[in-house]
Design a protein that fits this description.
Blueprint lengths: L2 E7 L8 E7 L2 E7 L12 H4 L15 E4 L2 E4 L2 H14 L5 E4 L6 H14 L5 E2 L2 H4 L1 H11 L8 H4 L4 E5 L3 H4 L1 H12 L3 E5 L5 H4 L3 E3 L6 H14 L5 H7 E2 L1 H8 L6 H8 L3 H13 L3 E5 L1 H4 L4 H14 L10 E3 L6 H6 L16 H11 L14 H10 L6 E5 L3 H4 L3 H9 L3 E6 L11 E4 L8 E4 L4 E5 L12 H14 L8 H11 L8 H4 L5 E2 L25 E2 L18 E6 L15 H6 L5 E3 L1 H7 L6 E6 L2 E9 L7 E5 L12 E4 L6 E2 L3 E7 L4
Parallel strand pairs: 6-7, 6-14, 8-9, 8-12, 9-10, 11-20, 12-13, 14-15, 15-16, 21-25, 22-24
Antiparallel strand pairs: 1-2, 2-3, 4-5, 4-16, 17-18, 18-19, 21-28, 23-24, 23-28, 26-27
The chain binds iron/sulfur cluster (SF4).
Length: 688
């Protein structure tokens, strides 16, 4: 028997825990602690504990599949690649779109980005960051000049006051929750605001239950209270920011008196007062947020408001402070860094910037040039164009994404995808999206490849190959490179290893410029920006100045606006959606993990007991959940943990898919959908 441990990084959430994969006779059979990781120090959450279980599941895709007469038939790689290359060449650049993936490595995202812009010459590339943190990228770029988490995970343990809103940290990022507990044990206060009394709420010193969609009002109200009491950091505001007057004019309006904010949000005035005082008076105070802040039609305003309160209180550029946007998927930060977005190349170098466009065109050396220097479509816009303007987009190449479960208003998404003339999906399992494809390509999972991923705290860490891929499955970057070569661009995709790709990334990306596999292979890895080979990396951003050319932080006056859809007589409740601790995203991997699936085998809808009484609904009873977009049958979970008037559904479960119900109304800047608030009604299912 041959046994070995292979150190790698968890493929689930953005925390970036490191563990060992236990390999017996060439197959991954378990997970064991790796104690030298500073992020998780050998600990993992349930998803990490069972991160080996899906790897050798019998459902893995092992051979290319081509749809013939409505059925998939097995094909050779040559056949599949020939067909794809022939088809891709038939379309004009603007008729094609690519979806990259927050699940795969930085190298694979880079290769897909280069393929889209250099081979297909299309502007239309995006990935699921659009659905989770597009508002963070836009909001923090506008306020600070850089759209990423400002401080590190370890730094959270140094905070004196932590304000978590729009994040169920203890379930979604449990090992970040551990840092929150370490700070609490050293005397820090924890303030938590959420419509649900979650496991995170249970640890809070102050819990504020509020109506989903009132975040800007709450933050403006807190800032009014801070300014009224003279608790703002006057030195910081004077020396490091601009446009404070504009912010002040907005937040001092009577609309944001604590009494009025209490009416909008449902939070008692006394709690708001306490929150403002604790937060402003703390020696250091950080904010942790996630998709409760970003997934709104006012997502960018929500993020700007978070940035505003941190600049107002001087809580940036120092330990224990910061705006800590907790990224959902393992490599959503990296996929953004790699330019898998419709407006930037790697390192957020703008596509419309002539110098940046020329830099990439020159570095890549495509004899017939690259895509136009114009912004492309976001994934949400792609779906709208496909559904509403048939014939404009015709062909799509999707790597490791499952929009048929993850996107809002799934009937709309299905109509959109069915309007495609040609769809290629590359994944490790057959998904609800790949079922609709013309060609399905079998890819490798994290345990079968070398590469890097970038966690929520901008830490770039290694994946290391632990076993061979099943059947004929190939590395994502190899597959994309094979298609590129077949289309005549072999020279531009001639890498022999992930390391060679990373070295190319480092050459064209200033923030990754000082990184290489040797440096990243150390237990602590490196935080970007790391511009030179001698640079130690940057765990805390904006220490001396912000990333804008003038070095100043920019205040924005944001006024509160209600969600796009509010309750009315027909749909009298608010639906909000999210994740549970046992499952991950669209369930492709976790629902094939027997231990995780056993814990939570299906979805549910949370209903407050008072609402359940009015509806005549019992706990565990199947009910119909209905919105203007569709309806699903789902078991009721009657619980005091959800606020009266608000209901919650996890979105992992295809048999009761929450996204059939959600609203695809978009934030006008980030084009992120409003997953977190729409109007819903619930009906008893009548017996036949
Ligand atoms: Fe993996 Fe996140 Fe759990 Fe860490 S906290 S083990 S990264 S899922």
């Amino acid at each position: 028997m041959d046994m070995k441990y292979v150190q790698t990084t968890c493929p689930y959430c953005g925390t970036g825990c490191t563990f060992n994969l236990v390999v017996r006779d060439g197959k991954v059979i378990g997970v064991a602690p790796y104690h030298r990781s500073p992020v998780n120090e050998g600990k993992v959450c349930p998803k990490g504990t069972y991160a080996h279980e899906f790897v050798n599941h019998p459902d893995r895709l092992t051979t290319p599949l081509i749809k013939k007469d409505g059925k998939f038939v097995e094909a050779s790689w040559d056949e599949a690649i020939d067909l794809i290359a022939k088809k891709f060449k038939q379309y004009k650049p603007d008729e094609c779109a690519c979806l990259s993936s927050a699940r795969v490595s930085n190298e694979e995202n880079y290769v897909m980005m280069k393929f889209a812009r250099g081979v297909m010459k299309t502007r239309h590339i995006d990935h699921c960051a659009r659905l989770c943190h597009a508002s963070t990228v836009a909001g923090l770029a506008a306020t600070f000049g850089s759209g990423a988490m400002t401080n590190s995970i370890l730094d959270i343990a140094e905070s004196k006051c932590m304000f978590i809103l729009g994040s169920n940290t203890f379930e979604q990022h449990p090992l970040i929750g551990r840092k929150v507990m370490q700070a609490k044990m050293k005397g820090a206060k924890l303030i938590y605001a959420d419509p649900r009394y979650t496991p995170t709420a249970k640890q809070a010193d102050l819990y504020m239950q509020f109506r989903s969609g009132s975040d800007v009002a709450i933050l403006n109200g807190l800032m009014q209270e801070i300014i009224k009491n003279g608790w703002e950091d006057k030195e910081f505001v004077k020396n490091r920011t601009k446009d404070f007057d504009k912010l002040k004019e907005e937040v001092m309006k009577p609309d944001y008196s604590l009494e009025n904010v209490s009416k909008i949000s449902g939070i008692p005035v006394a709690q708001l007062k306490t929150c403002a005082e604790w937060f402003a008076k703390a020696e250091s105070a950080c904010i942790l947020y996630s998709m409760g802040i970003t997934q709104h039609t006012v997502g960018v305003d929500n993020v700007k408001s978070v940035a505003n309160i941190q600049m107002l209180t001087g809580n940036l550029g120092k330990p224990g402070a910061g705006v800590n946007a907790l990224r959902g998927q393992n490599n959503v930060q990296g996929a953004c860094d790699m330019g898998a977005l419709p407006v930037v190349f790697t390192g957020y170098q703008k596509v419309i910037d002539e110098a940046a466009h020329k830099k990439f065109a020159d570095a890549w050396g495509f004899p017939d040039g690259i895509c136009e220097p114009k912004n492309g479509y976001e994934v949400t816009t792609m779906m709208d164009v496909l559904a509403d303007k048939p014939g404009e987009l015709k062909c799509m190449y999707i790597m490791g994404e499952n929009p048929m479960i993850s996107d809002p208003d799934l009937h709309h998404v299905e109509k959109a995808i069915k309007n495609l003339e040609f769809l290629v999906v590359q994944d490790i399992f057959m998904t609800e999206t790949s079922e609709l494809a013309d060609v399905v390509l079998p890819a490798t999972c994290y345990a079968e490849k070398d590469g890097t991923q970038t966690s929520t705290e901008r830490r770039v860490q290694m994946w290391r190959k632990a076993q061979d891929a099943p059947g004929q499955a190939k590395l994502d970057w190899e597959i994309t490179s094979m298609i590129a070569a077949k289309m005549g661009y072999g020279k531009q995709f001639a890498w022999k290893s992930a390391e060679e790709i990373f070295n190319e990334i480092a050459k064209v990306t200033p923030s990754y410029g000082g990184m290489n596999y040797t440096r990243l292979g150390r237990p602590e890895a490196l935080h970007w920006p790391c511009p030179t080979a001698e640079h130690p990396g940057t765990p805390i951003l904006h220490k001396e100045k912000f990333a804008h050319p003038d070095g100043l932080g920019q205040f924005f006056a944001c006024s509160w606006k209600p969600p796009a859809e509010v309750p009315d007589a027909e749909y009298p409740y608010i639906l909000t959606t999210g994740r549970c601790i046992w499952h991950w995203h669209t369930g492709t991997m976790t629902r094939r993990s027997k231990d995780l699936e056993a814990e939570e085998p299906t979805g549910w809808i949370e209903i407050n007991p008072e609402d359940a009484k009015v509806l005549g609904v019992q706990n565990k009873e199947m009910v119909k959940a209905i919105t203007r977009r569709g309806e699903v049958k789902v078991p009721a979970r009657v619980t005091k943990d959800i606020m009266k008037g608000v209901m919650f559904m996890p979105f992992h479960f295809k048999e009761c898919a929450a996204n059939v119900l959600t609203n695809n109304a978009l934030d006008p800047i980030a084009k992120i959908p409003e997953f977190k608030a729409c109007a819903i009604r619930v009906e008893k299912i009548k017996e036949a």
